[in-house]
Amino acid sequence: MPNLKLSQLPVANNAVAGDYVYLVQGGVSKKLTASNLLVGLNMNIIPSTNDVYSMGNSTNRFRAIYVASDGIFLGNTNLRADANGSVTFSGNLAANAFVSLGSGVPTLRSNSNINLRANSNGGGGAVVITNSPLRFTGFTTTQRNSLIGVANGDVIYNTTTNKLQAYVNNSWTDLH
């Protein structure tokens, strides 16, 4: 078989074990036979042009993709997983629904506030909780008084007084 570009390769059914192609990386060519082309590669696979080629399609999909901890880059977003199975990504997450299928309680964590916003321009929407109660975290009076960054409108359940409390006009007020 003569030297061919990847776009010129014959379909796999027509390839025979003695056929080979050269892939070039950094000016160094690597010889691959048709029989080992699909067995394994020991080089980076980089397309010749940006944003043109696909892996699979809507009817012929890959069953699984295995990558190391550097993650998958989707545009400018990096999707990563750590050894504990936690997935992190840069950028925003947009979804029509969040469904937890695992055991345990799903937890959203942040080193700052977590904002729930029903409408991006601030009007015409509400955060609605359906089919379940809303549970505020419990603090003793001592713990409540030690909270940092308390702001008017904050709500807690005081386990010392067994009262729901709101921070109003810079002080805690019982809600009845």
Describe the model.
The chain is mainly β. 5% of the residues lie in helices and 23% in strands. It is built from two helices and nine strands, in the order ββαββββαβββ. The protein has helices spanning 34-37, 141-145, and strands at residues 20-25, 28-33, 72-74, 77-81, 87-89, 138-139, 155-158, 163-168, 171-175. A four-stranded mixed β-sheet has the order 6-7-8-9. Strands 3-4-5 form a three-stranded antiparallel β-sheet, with no helix packed on it. A two-stranded antiparallel ribbon has the order 1-2. The longest helix has 5 residues, at 141-145. The radius of gyration is 28 Å and the shape is elongated. The mean pLDDT is 79.
- Tell me the number of strands: 9
Helicity level, as a percent range? under 10%
The CA-CA distance between the termini, in Å, is 85 Å
The sequence of SSEs as H and E is EEHEEEEHEEE
**Low-pLDDT residue spans:** none
Strand order of the biggest β-sheet: 6-7-8-9
Q: Given the helix and strand composition, which structural class is it?
A: mainly beta
Task: Please tell me how large the radius of gyration is.
Answer: 28 Å
Q: In this structure, how is the largest beta sheet organized?
A: 4 strands, mixed
Mean pLDDT: 79
- Which descriptor suits the 3D outline? elongated
Tally of alpha and pi helices: 2
Share in β-strands: 15-25%
